[in-house]
Amino acid sequence: RDSLKYYVDLSTWLARAQAVTSGVSGKMGEAMNYLRKVAEDFARSHKGTAKDVIEAYYRMATSGIEFKDSLAAAIPIVKLAMGTYSDTVQVAKAVAGIYRLLGDTVEGVTNRQEKMYKIVDILAKAWQTNELEVNEVAQAIANFVGVAKQYNLTFTETIALIATSHEGMIKAGRAGRLLSRVFEDLSKNLPKVAEFLGVTFKPTERID
Q: Within a 13 Å sphere around the CA of 152, how many CA atoms are in the beta-carbon half?
């Protein structure tokens, strides 16, 4: 009976995932079979379940992220949720938002899988060292992303700024708003800063 229920549930989870899947180059059925294999292989060797993996995939795909990127994110998201004692759905929603906003600023990676693991590794480090929850990071990024893009900040640099703000008891979305204000104020005084430092640079240039 339990086995039958599992396969009925699994079919439901996969059908739900298929409904939001995009960017499949081959047959949709083959793509869902592969998602199932990835989910079940993970469940056999980890504490997480196949449902967790498919749920993480679903939340990425729901955000308009294509099949290969959503699939690459699924297991790293489940591991992040497990490692931070967080809810898989909430972590997946947060990572999807972060990926859409700053995924193109992740440096030092050569493929999708490396990119997703770098994102979750940095988020896990922020949680471990700064007690910064993933959903708090997502809120802060949503309020800071425009300025972060303007100043060509990388994903790592952006998280470092948010984590530093968090250490100063500036939480979640408020951190993003205040960081935006700091950068805007700085941009108004760049000539004075440049004069003091003896350098010349433009407001939109990245400062290394």
A: 7
Separation of alpha carbons 9 and 51, rounded Å:
9
43, 53 contact by CB (below 8 A): yes
CB-based contact 95:123 (threshold 8 Å): yes
Counts for the chain of helices (H) and strands (E), in that order: 10, 0
Counting every residue, how long is the chain? 208
Instruction: State the Cα–Cα distance between residues 92 and 105, nearest whole angstrom.
Output: 19
Return the structure tokens found at 32: 């869902």
pTM, to two decimals: 0.83
| Under 8 Å between Cβ of 84 and 134 | yes
pLDDT at 203: 46
Burial of residue 159 (CB within 10 Å: 0-12, 13-18, 19+) is: buried
Please choose, from the candidates 120, 138, 135, the residue with its C-alpha nearest in 3D space to the C-alpha of residue 83.
120
Task: For residue range 152-173, list pLDDT tens digits in order.
Answer: 889 999 999 898 888 777 876 7
